[in-house]
Amino acid sequence: MEQSVAKKPKYPLGFWICSLTFSFERFAFYGSKPLLVLFLITAVNQGGLGVSEVEASIIASNFTAFTYLAPVFGGIICDRWLGARYAVSIGTVLMALGYFIGWKTTSVMSVHMMIFVVSVGTGLFKGNLAALIGRLFDDKEVLDSAFSVQYSFVNIGAFFGSAITGVLYMNQFKQGDVLGFRPVFLVCGVLVLIGGIFFTLSYKTLKGQGIKPFKYLTDENGNIVGESTSDEEEVTIDVNAPLTKLEKNRVLAIVFVSFVSIIFWLFYYQQELALTIYMDKFVNMKLGGFEFAPQHITTTWNGLLCIFLSLLFAKLWAALAKRPQGDLSMFQKVTLSFIFLGLSYVVLMLMETTRGIGADETHQASVLWLFGFGTLLTIAEICFSPLGNSFVSKYAPKKYLALMMSVWIFASFAAAKINGYVQIFVEKLGIYTIFVTFAAVSFVVAVVLFLLTKKLNKLLADEE
């Protein structure tokens, strides 16, 4: 008697090619991004550009901000005019060129040029490679698991990129007192280019996808077999019809959550700039004979925790879902995220207190405080993860889907952009005041969300 055995989904070869290409790109991005603000503020005779901390923060924030914004325009290009496979290949070349500019940079203007070129390349690369992966699967039911696997490749790239380059610039590439920032940018450029070449040479594994713009459907030979439309429900929508009460409520919910996300990501991004500058001055980064680079705390530790805690919390949400009342609602999880976000800043407050509030650089805190901060911050991030594109895709009125998605993307862009200006307040008010303020605001937002959860859930609910 034969027994039916549930088989694990089999992913096409092209999926693994695309995922590995992501790893190369994320290695370069997360290998260079945490170094940028340090490169800018480090004295010229130590391998940096000697820029003020405020100016450096504003410049470095653009690297995150514009790499969020550029994929919007890259997606439009691929939707209408350019095949995704070609956009991805061109994007890797442009990103590599940008990092090569960083390798040879001697001025702030060339840093701006590096950020611009890498952002344009990212715009052509990031969203389009993800969309290309989606086109490789005939069975859409396996997409969730496939993208979970793909996300692990992203984390692997981020983990190794930040871990390795952190050692390279402090040790292998260091010459006397001159830190090896510039050679790291060269390594990042070479690796993203290798990933692009590997992807380009593997076009045949893509099942004919990405040859034509996304508005066309193609077969495994790349021939057009039709035009891509959304589901049938969307085709029948009257674009001139006014929004229903439910649709208006959902738009309101999306706008509210987008605003909340600006607060969350602004506080989250402090580790990239203000906290990186702080730990470079006021934290003893040595532990057990090993000297940590700031990016080992902000990126490597975060990436490692994400891999394990994501699995743990996935099991937790699944267990909660079996309760009679079901899993926590999205807004309850966001409330939790702000509680953990506030606790992470309480750890920073305690760290500064043990060091001596406002003390000079001769008084340094232990790096162990930062590991505690990073753990709580990562838990906050994981609780916040139910939000994002899936939330907007699920609840946005169909005819305003692109607009609502733009609102969500703009929120991330705004948080990254505002982040660059926080250093102005750090210098005026002191870092301890910033820690206290961010902790207090986080807890206030958590209380507000807790009190509004029922009303927010009603905005999304179809009462019919």
Notes on the protein architecture:
This protein has 16 helices and six strands. 71% of the residues lie in helices and 3% in strands. It has helices at 13-41, 53-80, 84-104, 108-135, 143-172, 181-200, 232-235, 245-268, 274-282, 294-321, 330-355, 368-384, 389-395, 401-419, 422-429, 431-460; strands at 216-218, 224-227, 283-284, 286-287, 290-291, 365-366. Helix 1 packs antiparallel against helix 6, helix 2 (53-80) packs antiparallel against helix 14 (401-419) and helix 10 (294-321) crosses helix 12. The strands form three sheets. The protein has a two-stranded antiparallel sheet. A two-stranded parallel sheet has the order 3-6. It has a two-stranded antiparallel ribbon with strand order 4-5. It is globular and about 65 Å long. Strand 1 (216-218) and strand 2 (224-227) form a beta hairpin. The relative contact order is 0.13. It has 464 residues and is mainly alpha-helical. The protein has two domains: 11-228, Growth Hormone, Chain: A (Up-down Bundle); 236-464, MFS general substrate transporter like domains (Growth Hormone, Chain: A), CATH 1.20.1250.
Q: Topology as H/E string?
A: HHHHHHEEHHHEEEHHEHHHHH
The residue fraction in helices comes out at over 70%
> Structural class, judged by helices and strands?
mainly alpha
CATH architecture of the largest domain: Up-down Bundle
Give the tally of structural domains.
2
The CATH superfamily of the largest domain turns out to be: MFS general substrate transporter like domains
Task: Write a short abstract of this structure.
The chain is mainly alpha-helical. It has helices at residues 13-41, 53-80, 84-104, 108-135, 143-172, 181-200, 232-235, 245-268, 274-282, 294-321, 330-355, 368-384, 389-395, 401-419, 422-429, 431-460, and strands at 216-218, 224-227, 283-284, 286-287, 290-291, 365-366. The strands form three sheets. Strands 1-2 form a two-stranded antiparallel sheet.
